[in-house]
Amino acid sequence: MTRTRADGATLAPTEPMALYYAQRASRGGLLITEATHISPEATPTWTIYQSVREAGGHVPGIWTKTQVERWQAVCDAVHDKGAFISCQLLHAGRVAQPGIGDHPLVLGSNAPLPPVSSSAVAIQSDLDAGDYNWDQPSVEPRALQTDEIGRLIDDYRVAARNAKRAGFDYVELHAAHGYLIEQFLCDRINRRTDRYGGSIENRCRLLFEVVAALVDEVGAGRVGVRLSPTAIDPRTGRYYQTYFGATTSDPESLYDFAVTGLNAFPLAYLMLTEPRVGALSVAIEADRSNCQPLRNLRFRSLFQGCLIGAGGFTPLTATMAIADGHYDLIAFGRWFLANPDLPDRLREGAPLNVYDRATFYGGGLEGYVDYPDRHAVRDGRPSRYRQIELPQIGVTHAPSAER
Length: 403
Fold this sequence. Notes:
CATH topology: TIM Barrel
Number of helices: 13
Structural class: alpha/beta
CATH architecture: Alpha-Beta Barrel
Number of domains: 1
Number of strands: 12
Radius of gyration: 20 Å
CATH superfamily: Aldolase class I
Helix content: 25-40%
CATH class: Alpha Beta
Mean pLDDT: 90
Oligomer: single chain
Largest sheet: 8 strands, parallel
């Protein structure tokens, strides 16, 4: 999950970031980094969040030597705990705004700057706010020219090479949540007439070309992909969860084609965000997203590799999704950031620290590396975080005796 704690001058990981990942590493576990940006053009300034506007905050990149060296410290800390780590590579597309060009790391570099997208279609704050709370004017992006696509793919390739140098075990292509790849997939945004627009096959072309480049760079079984399929509610005609206005007229056909096409590549995994995730701005007790049914079940029969589910899972529903064969693995975000020893807590059925939403983005160490593990709680050491028993976290239905 994006935490906007990178160093302001270098956009590189800091010592607290290395500690944050090391705290959450356990033998045999897999950590997936926050979104790590492949170039200045790819990098957003997250001033849509009040906490970032007030306290500052920066997202990390992986295009400079310093950034690679600092990520190596993160990887070393994770590996020392016997865990694995995947670098999530992101180009934010039209979500990135021109402000990054004023950063000293970028100013005067002649690097391509944002915003760019599949087409010159801006985010509309009144229509596309969604759970990411976009509430500011958005600059109309420049449509990437056909002859620029090769340069864009090279940016991904270089980022993957840098991740390999830093010691990452895997790289993950973030092709979800309304960012650049999804801006090509979705025809509400993609209005191109070249080979990257129009038909589903053309709109998926960039996804497949980037995946091919990443596999070529880091090897078979070392690349993951993240998608966030959506669908239209047949009762209301409205979309389930979408991000930054990334919607399409043919969601089921589009994502069926994309997921099936990914079978052509020797992927480490495919991660799917359940479109129920939402509820980023409500208290736990009011969060009903985890009571909604799974909506990505059809992809289990389409994808032949390791399938990871994310979004709105509780400890109980995660176990049920695995037992029912819907997913091979379940990823946790919000619960993991608040519980550094989450795997052990789940094994033991121990209570969970309740996450503090006010400290998700930007700021300092509070709400970042100060969440206690279960041993600290048992020893009676003081904590400002309340706890919640596992049965109190919303579930979709009661477990069976077998489970």
